[in-house]
Amino acid sequence: MSDRDFAQTLAKGLEVLACFESGALCLTLPEITRRSGLDRAVVRRLCLTLVRCGYLEEGEGGLRLAPRVLTLAGGFLGGLQVGRVVQPVLRHAAEELDMEVALATRDRLHAVYVDRAAPASARVTLGFGIGSALPLLHTAVGRMLLARSGPEVLEQALAARPATRYTEATELDPARLRAAVEAAREQGFAFARDEFELGAAGVAVPLGGLGQVPFVLATTASVNAFDEPGRLERVLDVLRRSALAIGRIGAPR
Amino acid sequence: MSDRDFAQTLAKGLEVLACFESGALCLTLPEITRRSGLDRAVVRRLCLTLVRCGYLEEGEGGLRLAPRVLTLAGGFLGGLQVGRVVQPVLRHAAEELDMEVALATRDRLHAVYVDRAAPASARVTLGFGIGSALPLLHTAVGRMLLARSGPEVLEQALAARPATRYTEATELDPARLRAAVEAAREQGFAFARDEFELGAAGVAVPLGGLGQVPFVLATTASVNAFDEPGRLERVLDVLRRSALAIGRIGAPR
DNA sequence: TGCGAATGGTGCGATAATCGCACATAGTGG
DNA sequence: CCACTATGTGCGATTATCGCACCATTCGCA
Fold first, then answer.
1. SS (H, E, C) B101-124
2. Which residue positions in chain B have pLDDT lower than 70?
3. Which residues of A fall within a CB distance of 8 Å from B88?
4. What is the model's pLDDT at position B253?
5. How far apart are CA A82 and CA B153, in angstroms?
6. What is the average per-residue pLDDT within A18-30?
7. Taking burial as the number of CB atoms within 10 A of a residue's CB, which of A59, A134, B132, B134 is the most buried?
8. In the 8-state DSSP scheme, what is residue A224?
9. At what angle are helices A151-159 and A174-187 packed, to 10 degrees?
10. Annotated domain spans of chain A
């Protein structure tokens, strides 16, 4: 039935894999069954296949992702020249600003860190690294990504906006969220503070994208880092110069 | 035919995905067909499925991995508490040694970087980051991993050893490679220089693993960084203390 | 101890999804 | 102009997959 050019079994297997994206260390078979909504026997067979192919491994009390998925991510990062081109630029910008700097893109309805650098002085980390997923609506990265994505993405994001606030400052009003994204598009940068993590603020600027998918360059710091007048301008300046230095992602080669 | 508990379509789809691991930015359909050895029509349908599921995207002149694979990797890293626990330790060790420090594990016949930190002074990077795959036989990380893996892994690695040397110093003699791995096991650390990258040397120490899969902590620097007497001992000391600080990967939670 | 619920493993027949050949088109280069 | 490669797709035969059903085991709890 349905589409002749769609391999259902493969799609279901990927669905099973996707159950592990939410940072759960170990999932049991029944848990995967619940999350995926697939038949119990099917889930079992798919999991056995995934284990045999090296994408999952059996741990104590369930299944967990295997290092194999890192190799896959390595293919993505390697193709983008992240190691050689992006990383040095991010490091330099991080030192210059004394702030965390990250390159991010969009995966469906999340912002995803592609690479990240922190200054040597940073003694505390928010715990976000490569592959971390952040909300689109309530972070600077996310809003800049939305500003550069099609309108349908914004609609989907608004439709899927969280029922509960991340913090007391989380904006939930659709009209205001639309305005924030629109402002990001017109200003050429996005700013957000306290809405996702209390005490944290972020700035994001666009970066020449690869095909349809936009990339953004962003920095995160504690809120008071931006209090000083002129600080925002300096951050924007460094970020934009870094964006130019990186250029179009994946364009070379 | 064959196994009742093995979803062939899923396995083939993963095979297609794996074609992109080797850092190729864009692959055309015929290229994937060649690499995977599957039927042309099958490859096409699987690719269409992978695109629809968001794991591949169409770029100029072929298909390429989508950011989605990063989200998957993020699930793996998040489950291991890499962001919060590992990263700070690596950063601290990197600064203390003024060398690049990495946490690595094994994926089949490759060593894979799980996380990495470089000191602020580092102005040049080898281009390896999270997800980068290194050979098992000719790097310090790899040999330490082999020393902690089952004997069958060593045999497979030896059987699959490269036909051409990476550098003029690459050891290709099976007996000597076995001895190097055995030495790593007995000494409790591995050392390699020039064998993979000319001018680069590495040291690796074991780390409490997660289940069967071993982890190692390693540092990389230019060869002359280890010339100074007593330097190796100091590196080992810092690495081992860092390994203790990280503890058993994924054990908490 | 005994009961019920949850988990894990598996056989099997019907169904439908997959396979892979085959045909068709377009672009490229000699 | 032809050979070659890339790409798209229809279709019949095959067979892999589905998902129900049944059974074994473990665990919690009364």
1. EEEEEEECCEEEEEEEECCCCCCC
2. 1-2, 209-212, 248-253
3. 123, 125
4. 37
5. 30
6. 86
7. B132
8. G
9. 150
10. 8-66, 72-246
Asked if B66 and A250 count as a contact pair (C-beta separation under 8 A), the reply is no
CATH number of B8-65: 1.10.10.10
Query: Between B140-148 and B174-187, two packed helices, what is the crossing angle to 10 degrees?
Result: 80
**Superfamily designation of domain B72-246:** GAF domain (3.30.450.40)
A114 contacts B70? CB cut-off 8 A: yes
In the block, tokens 């069967």 appear at: B212
Say whether pLDDT at A24 is over 80.
no
pTM of the predicted model over 0.85: yes
Rounded to 5°, angle at Cα B11 from B74 and A60: 50
Domain pair A8-66 / A72-246, same fold: no
Closest Cα partner for A217 from A196, A179, A247, A197? A247
Instruction: Answer for B4: CB within 7 Å of strand D.
Output: yes
Residues B119-139 have pLDDT tens digits of 888 777 778 999 999 999 999
> B167: Cβ under 7 Å from strand D?
no
A54 contact partners, CB below 8 Å, separation of at least 6: A66, A68, B107, B108
Report the residue of A12, A44, A69 to disrupt the B interface, i.e. the one with the largest count of B CBs within 10 Å: A69
CATH class of segment(s) A8-66: mainly alpha
Q: With beta carbons less than 8 A apart as the criterion, state whether B88 and B81 touch.
A: no
